[in-house]
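SECTION: protein entry
WANTED: fold as tokens:
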Amino acid sequence: MQNNIDFVNTPVVDVVNSIILAAAKAGASDIHFDHMDSCLKVRIRIDGILNDYADIPNEVKNNVITRIKILSGMNITETRLPQDGAIKTELGGLDLDMRVSSLPTKKGEKIVIRILDYSRSMQGIEYLFFSEENYKKILKMIAAPNGIILVTGATGSGKSTTVYSFLQKLNVKGTNLITVEDPVEMDIEGINQVQVNSDIGLDFATVLRSILRQDPNVIMIFEIRDSETAQIAVRASITGHLVLSTLHTNNSLTTIERLLDMEVERYLLASALSGIVSQKLARKLCDKCKKVRETNPYEKEMFRKFLNMDVNQVYEPVGCPECSSGYHGRIALQEVLLISPDIRDAINARMPKAELRAMVYGSDVITLLQDGLYKVIAGLTSISEVIKLTEADDEVNAEEKVKSMIKNKTQ
């Protein structure tokens, strides 16, 4: 990305507005302000990749940092402690909602602005690129009157977008929905949203206890962060409430293990857990410049091994003025586990991890790797993106599933 801003002679208000507006129009998720010896470097994250945008001269960099802190409601006299803030404004015809974080470093305060975009959530589950099989599982999960549904993945993997899309589907007449968030990221008409404030003792556990006396049908917990929250959430789900939440785990199996590590009783987890949606974000191929190429022997073997399919052609990135290195936007790779009676019994019976993995991935679960390969065939992403995101952990799980499938066929 290129800019033509004269940082020295342009008013600081216009400088900050120009940077934010350019990032928003480019579809960026974050703006980084990093202190260097010679300048304040501005970098913009587009489709998961940080791109250099501008170098702000040292003589004006403090003015830029101060302006951002004022906009986000931070204390401009405090430079020794981390701070968090928020900006809601209208720029260039765009309604922008941003979260701002400052971090004191040796060379000065590093600022990161996260640009929130929940347009996908507003559109609904149908626009999150779930496969037909996974979509049916999701509908079955959220149709249940009670239970806990977890959306898992790393930071920035789109968990909030997915959970908000579930809430949109559940937000119907005759339903009482209450959320506990930190902070409230998207205002939704018809939903009671509570923002926690730990400074005054209003934490997740305290709010959850009060929510249970508010006759809710659906409860959304922004994130399960500790044992107390996990235990209350699970208990709420077995007393007639549908609970949605997020967790920082990579796949279905590790999610079950994490909840057990949080001292959730096995018998409670076995009866409460309804489903797990694990996801990662892959860059989406640009529709205007992607091109078809022949698959190589390694790729052919991957499709045969994990999908039992012969695939002779795939799309690859090219690059054009409309995209970034052949990619434009991102798409979720998803693994959806609908908890079956057999899996409930296995959790309750303390089944060894290896056997539980074989059961989970020997069922109808489409792993992250397999879902990614299906999306490669559909021309939505590239095989290099899928391998980069999944080879570390999900290929092992996929291998277990293949072995189980082969074993079942020979019996």
Remarks:
- The first strand starts at residue 30 and ends at 35.
- DSSP finds 15 helices and 15 strands in the chain.
- The two ends are 58 Å apart (CA to CA).
- Residues 88 and 97 are 5 Å apart (CA to CA).
